[in-house]
Write a structure and sequence with these properties.
CATH superfamily of the largest domain: Spore Coat Polysaccharide Biosynthesis Protein SpsA, Chain A
Shape: elongated
Low-confidence stretches: 15-27, 245-250, 286-317
CATH topology of the largest domain: Spore Coat Polysaccharide Biosynthesis Protein SpsA, Chain A
Number of helices: 18
Distance between the termini: 80 Å
Structural class: alpha/beta
Helix content: 25-40%
Strand content: 15-25%
Number of domains: 2
């Protein structure tokens, strides 16, 4: 008895020193010093998981979902396709496929998927069903395996904004409001699956005239509640919903504001670079084949660059990624004669140039919307109109973009897309095209905004922000002219502060990267020296000019434009006032 008491005291002391075991299991610290869940048992967890989808998603959201799940550790899901006669269109994924024809609806497909997963793998410890319009974090599966499955509950990996308030800023698992919001990704233990499949509510659900064929989330939370099981959500959200249009005909789901992005490693709580994400994908592919990870010479880690190397100057003659050009200008720059920014009145009607970058992502209409926004105001530009097009395997052809512009633009520069550089791949070559020391020349620089980041995925106001940039920049030329008579640059959403660690505080940038500049001032300075990361277009004004040498069209001293709350509280009222003052409407 004495020995048993000693062992109990030691076990209790050890549990207290390691943080005990709570909803997410025991805690341990990773290399970064952060606490991460510890799996309560060393026994390997077996999974049965699948993805429900419809044929309409085959060529847009679905492949991205599979790629994200593969990085997360769920690389071999069974596909449940509702509304497909056969699996011919899905063979190239190399996955097991179950098709249903005629279609049985979202709820029917989800329930049949759960039944099939259970029938095929009744001994699995955990079951997961993902929808076809989500993205998640690298390493998600390992993270979930370290989390202790709630004894009387199940995991909803998608955290609605109103559920986030229940977390009070505390990371980890929390009880939701039990209203069943979001069935994008649900994880259940075997006992929960058995309880769910035997619940009368799941059978009676199909009798509902209005909700019988959809609303998986509400059905699950109600059925689980009847057997004493509750829904748990996570802070931050473990998945993000990417579908802008519901395949069920529902309204659009709000986005998970707490989702940290696809580059966030949930295990280490660090953001991965694009190369690191690629490495994760490589290791998972090798592990899947049972091979040892071998890094080839081509994949050797690059040496860390110094700040001087990162700020190396782009030269106008560098055309390594240029595939085609119909631009008539040639970069023959010599430093201009107006190094000092001072008031220089225009001596006639200014020549207004346009330099514009387009990334025509296939399957996205956002780039077309951007082009149309420019075309509606194209008559403003009475000088050069030069458009850069970034093309790759994932994009439309350059000819599709040219057809969209029609006869309004004749000068194009076609570049091989560089995902790391973004619009920086064309930034300096475009600047070189409009080089001039003429005080009567001005240039507007912009790009097709939100094509990748948006499609309204991460924040519902991004296209509204883009609309604001177009309209405030191009619908009050007299104000722009007034600014450029005494300043070097102007634009909306001017910010001040330290954009990057190596830049001086208080330098101006334009959040969104839409701005006008006066050519004589720009080309009298070292305009070719830019920051090489993809945000170099935005930091460029801070390298060129001071606060006193720039102006702002709308919303000066802007805050975080990516924040939905800031948009609603500050930006939208300022934008609406700007329109009202000019007799304009949205």
């Amino acid at each position: 008895m004495a020995r048993q008491a000693v062992r109990l005291r030691r076990a209790k002391a050890k549990a207290e020193s390691t943080g005990g075991v709570g909803e997410a299991g025991g805690k341990r610290r990773n290399r970064a010093g952060r606490r991460v869940p510890r799996r309560s048992s060393k026994r390997a967890i077996t999974w049965a998981y699948g993805v429900t989808t419809v044929p309409q998603r085959l060529d847009n959201l679905f492949p991205r979902t599979l790629a994200s799940l593969a990085l997360a550790g769920f690389g071999e899901p069974r596909l449940f396709v509702d509304g497909a006669k056969d699996a011919a269109n899905y063979q190239h994924f190399g996955l097991e496929v179950t098709t249903r024809w005629p279609n049985v609806g979202t709820y029917g497909n989800w329930m049949l998927a759960l039944w099939e997963l259970y029938l095929r793998t009744p001994s699995a410890g955990r079951f997961a069903i993902f929808q076809d319009d989500l993205v998640t974090y690298p390493g998600l599966r390992e993270y979930l395996e370290r989390c202790e499955q709630p004894e009387k509950g199940y995991m909803n990996l998608y955290t609605f904004p109103h559920n986030l308030r229940l977390c009070n800023g505390v990371p980890g698992w929390h009880l939701s409001d039990q209203k069943g919001k979001g069935g994008v990704a649900i994880v259940l233990c075997r006992k929960a699956v058995m309880a769910l499949l035997s619940q009368n509510h799941m059978v009676d659900r199909v009798q509902s005239v209005q909700r019988g064929w959809r609303a998986v989330d509400g059905a699950v939370v109600t059925a689980m509640g009847k057997v004493g099981r509750q829904e748990y959500i996570h802070n931050p959200s473990l998945v993000q919903h990417t579908g802008t249009v519901s395949s069920m005909g529902n309204g659009r789901h709000p986005l998970a504001d707490s989702f940290r992005g696809e580059e966030f490693d949930i295990l280490t709580h660090k953001f991965l670079s694009a190369a690191a994400v690629e490495d994760v994908a490589l290791k998972k592919a090798i592990h899947k084949k049972g091979q040892q990870p071998i890094r080839s010479a081509e994949r050797a880690r690059p040496k860390r660059r110094t700040a001087r190397a990162k700020q190396a100057a782009y030269r106008p003659g560098d055309k390594s990624n240029l595939l085609e050009s119909t631009a008539i200008g040639e970069p023959t720059w010599t430093k201009g004669t107006h190094p000092k920014v001072e008031r220089i009145p225009f001596t006639g009607e200014p020549v207004r140039n346009l330099i514009y970058h387009v990334y025509p992502l296939r399957g996205s209409d956002v780039w077309r919307w951007n082009v149309d926004m420019i075309l509606q105001r194209i008559s403003l530009f009475n000088g050069r109109r030069v458009v850069a097009i970034a093309v790759g395997d994932e994009t439309e052809s350059a000819e599709v973009v040219k057809d969209r512009f029609g006869s309004e633009v004749v000068e194009y520069m076609v570049f091989r897309n560089n995902k790391q550089a973004g619009e920086m791949s064309s930034f300096v070559p475009l600047l070189a095209q409009v080089e001039s020391d003429d005080p009567n020349q001005v240039t507007f620089r912009a790009h097709a905004k939100c094509v990748v980041r948006c499609q309204r995925e991460k924040s519902p106001h991004f296209l509204d922000w883009a609309e604001m940039l177009y309209r405030t920049s191009l619908e009050d030329w007299l104000l722009v002219r007034q600014h450029l008579e005494a300043a070097a640059m102007t634009g909306s959403c001017r910010k001040f502060g330290q954009f990057a660690k190596r830049q001086k505080k208080g330098k101006p940038t334009y959040h969104g990267t839409f701005y006008w500049f006066r050519n004589c001032f720009v080309y009298s300075r070292d305009w070719q020296v830019v920051d090489t990361p993809r945000w170099g277009c935005e930091s460029w004004p801070a390298k060129m000019f001071t606060k006193e040498e720039t102006r702002c069209i709308c919303l000066d001293n802007a805050g975080n434009m990516c924040s939905t709350a800031y948009w609603k509280s500050t930006v939208k009222p300022a934008y609406d006032k700007w329109l009202r003052d000019r007799g304009l409407s949205r």
